[in-house]
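User: I'm curious what two different proteins look like when written out as structure tokens. Can you demonstrate?

Assistant: Sure. I'll show them one after the other, since each token string lines up with its own sequence. Here's the first protein:
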Amino acid sequence: PAEADRAVLERLLGDLPDAARRGGLDLRDERVRAWLRARQRDDFADGGVVELDGWWLSQTEVRFCAWLAVRQA
């Protein structure tokens, strides 16, 4: 979102593709969906997970939740 601090978004989103960064996350776009799925798989394979109240989430899922929270703030 335009009102958010760009540096904060960069840290939250990591290596999100530039096109998705410019236009936001359009989950109808199969390229964005494929990117998210691949990142989630890689997170679990590489141990990039976060435990939250008994649930194991990929770091990508956590970043996505943070992005949504920033966007809705």
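Here's a second, unrelated protein for contrast:
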Amino acid sequence: RWFFPKKTNFSQVTTDEILAALELINQRPLKIHHQQTAI
């Protein structure tokens, strides 16, 4: 929901927008990993 609100019509969202959101999510440091990313 940070990137796409509820009831988002994903047929109108481009692949590039989804990939950009995924990259930001996967690169976010996590507290449980001592501020390291999942990758």
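A detail about the second structure: The mean pLDDT is 81.
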